[in-house]
Amino acid sequence: MRKRCAIKHGIFKEFLAEFLGTFVLVLFGCGSVAQTVLSRNTLGEPLTVHIGFSVGLMMAAYVAGGVSGGHVNPAVSLAMVILGKLKIWKFPFYVIAQFLGAFAGAAAVFGLYYDAFMDFTSGILSVTGINATGHIFASYPARHLSILGGFIDQVVGTGMLVLCILAIIDGGNIGAPKGVEPLAIGLIIMAIGVSMGLNCGYPLNPARDLGPRLFTAVAGWGMEVFSTADYWWWIPVAGPMVGGVVAAVLYYLLIELHHPRDEPEKPREEEEDEEDEDEDSSLKDKYEMITMS
Fold first, then answer.
1. What is the DSSP track for 198-225?
2. At the fourth CATH level, which superfamily is domain 1-258?
3. Please, are residues 61 and 181 in contact by the beta-carbon 8 Å criterion?
4. Where are the domains of the chain?
5. How distant, in Å, are the alpha carbons of 139, 190, 288, 292 from that of 234?
6. How far is CA 148 from the centre of its chain?
7. Dihedral angle at the C-alpha atoms of 74, 72, 110, 202, nearest 10 degrees?
8. Residue 270 confidence (pLDDT)
9. What is this structure's pTM?
10. Which of 51, 116, 180, 291 is least surrounded by CB atoms within 10 angstroms?
């Protein structure tokens, strides 16, 4: 009974950690986009958005990392399941917490900038047009991007994110000093943002994209958030999950599988028992030699 209660308490703590971590990520990330768009680029630019998401992920990892690992991304959680670093029965709890945290983070951004939204849009919330604001919360493709191109974009981008995260936390690799891992992970997002952000704004996270998208659907933007761009919405959901799986498999096959495997050290008690046995056998041999002589 106690063990069952401990398990429930443990998963509850991890659930809350993932929820709060994802909330922090979306609040800083989408907040930086909101400030840029609603100020008509007078208080923000693409670089400030990259900084917002990078620092947001870094802070999310600091908030949740010590409790749940700070995944804040279903694609990362799935990669950890595949590598045996997260129990599969915990995966649904992590994903639900991440989606709820992202939804709540989007609601917080909307509440924080509600007056600015009303002033910018004259009360008409839309996904397209001069005063479009849907892209503050979720990703939408650039005009040049095809569905296939967008899917590949998300597979590659998320794959690089997960690949680099696995390298940072791998004790058999160079890794990062304890406590510095979140900073290194934040820099990954910065690198992806400045190199792979042109196509659709590097969502890379099903929870971070779909959670706020659901919020906009119920907050006044309507179902247009799902139908726009040939029903684009599923690309930032499916693409990152595939990218996470591919990255996990590649990292294991090309890096982790080739780490030297040290034999586990024998417990101290076993070593003492072996020493005692050696001494006993040595004394026995001496006794036999004496009696034979």
1. TTT-----HHHHHHHHHHHIIIIITTHH
2. Glycerol uptake facilitator protein. (1.20.1080.10)
3. yes
4. 1-258
5. 11, 24, 81, 86
6. 24
7. -70
8. 53
9. 0.87
10. 291
